[in-house]
Amino acid sequence: MEIMRVVDELVCTRRVPGLQLCALRILKSPQGAISVATDPVGALIGNWVFVSAGSAARLAMKDATILTDLTICGIIDSWEEAG
Amino acid sequence: MKIMRVEKTLVSTNRIDAFGHRPLLVVQDKPGGPRSVAVDAIGCVPGDWVLCVGSSAAREAAGAKDFPSDLTIVGIIDHWDAGDKG
């Protein structure tokens, strides 16, 4: 799993049926790369989270049929980027 | 499989139910390198050099085929000299 920070929410009204109504978050890695993940936990902007990728991302959603390849698995209680 | 070093434990109270209470550890490729989070299937301590598996092997190694992990620690390396192998 990778450690990333929530930088924003993502609104996407027109989407494939397979994505259903799940919440999307914009995440930034410590290296600065931006990605989008589905969010079953309800992370807030500024939270540090850990994410599962690939097929584990689909199992991390309550409904494994949702078409995602990156899912937030939990909010990290305390995290400092430097160490 | 990857050789990684355990840096510290990761505390996450608000997590998805599927993770249960499995211990999570912050691991690094090399000291100072990029960090990842791994599920600990054996019980290691910070400073250990460990063997990690990814993809679907990570799910099964963590205890069940539907466990949503993409990185799981499957072994503690008895002796590892990082400087020796780069």
Which percent range describes the beta-strand content of chain B?
35-45%
Just name the CATH architecture of chain B: Beta Barrel
Instruction: Let me know the average pLDDT of chain A.
Output: 93
Classify the helix fraction of chain B into a percent range: 10-25%
Helices and strands of chain A, in N-to-C order? Answer: EEEEHE
Proportion of β residues of chain A? 35-45%
Continuous helix count of chain A: 1
Q: Please state the oligomeric state of the protein chains shown.
A: heterodimer
Number of domains of chain A: 1
Order of helices and strands of chain B: EEEEHEH
Distance from first to last alpha carbon of chain B:
17 Å
Could you please describe the fold and organization of this structure?
The complex is a heterodimer of chains A (83) and B (86). Chain A has 83 residues and is mainly beta. Chain A has one domain (2-75): EutN/Ccml (OB fold (Dihydrolipoamide Acetyltransferase, E2P), Beta Barrel), CATH 2.40.50.220. In chain A, 7% of the residues lie in helices and 37% in strands. Chain A has one helix spanning 55-60, and strands spanning 2-10, 24-28, 34-38, 48-53, 70-75. A five-stranded antiparallel sheet of chain A has the order 3-2-1-4-5. Chain B is mainly beta and 86 residues long. Chain B has two helices and five strands; from the N terminus they run E-E-E-E-H-E-H. Chain B has helices at residues 55-61, 82-85, and strands spanning 2-10, 24-28, 35-40, 49-54, 71-76. Chain B has a five-stranded mixed beta barrel. The two termini of chain B are 17 Å apart. The chains are: A mainly beta (83), B mainly beta (86).
